[in-house]
Amino acid sequence: MDLRQMRYFLALAQELHFGRAAERLHMSQPPLTRQIRALEEQLGTLLFLRTPKGVELTEAGQALLEEVPNVLLLAERAQERTRLAGQGMEGRLEVGLFTSSVLDVIPRILAGFHAERPQVRIGLHTMSKVQQIDALLERRIAIGFNRLVPETPGITVETVLQQPVVVGLHDSHPLCAREEITLRDLEDQPMILYPNLPIAGLAQEVDGAFRREGRRLQVVQEVEDVLTCIALVSAGFGLCITIAPAANLGLPNVVFRPLRSRWLQSVELQCIYRSDDRSALLRAFLAHVRASAA
């Protein structure tokens, strides 16, 4: 029994008249009669009793009537969900984030996409750079956001935007009087670096910039995340070089000044995804990311 036969049966069961059912189905009566007869032969039972005024449902026909509307509804729902999924309007998008990514643009991107496509469920996962790459390759996430992502076979790295580099310092520090700060100003200052991870990140970029300018970098602490770093600055433990969105943490006693350096001006916020992923949902999300960044 196919969906077409179910629709024929439902029309006749509701109209209880071949002529009216055929008119409702936009077909002539003889083909409808043949289809109902074929359905009864297929099921091995009568579904309708013919009467002078039309037809009546048999007990078997009544049992079928209790099921067919639900089956047709499920079929229509499946067709609609399939259509929406094919357009990237429905489904689940797994997104990898890093700790400080929630401080600025990414929450706005996610909120905007959710507003455009409320039927899409978004799963968020806080992961390190290495964990995001592994999760992409293992197909546990569809896209990740990070910075300074190394080249990896099968992974596309796309720039979302450039984020300015700033210096974070305690509000009692003499350098707060400067409108901008140079690496020369930071020479021999107690510096806090992050992230303290084996893969290259902001800490390595800071170290490289000091080396290129021939300045001494005095590291008093290496930490794993921006929150710990800024908290230590707030406590007067030292200074840090970070990304402008860190100011959104709003920790007390911390001020931020632009860093003026030939070698370290901004850091790219990047999105990463599998190069062979052609899903409509990912493509729709990437289009939203690009439009938001523009």
TrEMBL record:
Key words, A-Z: DNA-binding, Transcription, Transcription regulation
One GO cellular component, as annotated: protein-DNA complex
Molecular function GO terms recorded: DNA binding; DNA-binding transcription factor activity
Superkingdom of this protein's organism: Bacteria
One Pfam family, short name: HTH_1
Domain HTH lysR-type per the UniProt entry, residue ranges: 1-58
Family: Belongs to the LysR transcriptional regulatory family.
Protein name from the UniProt record: LysR family transcriptional regulator
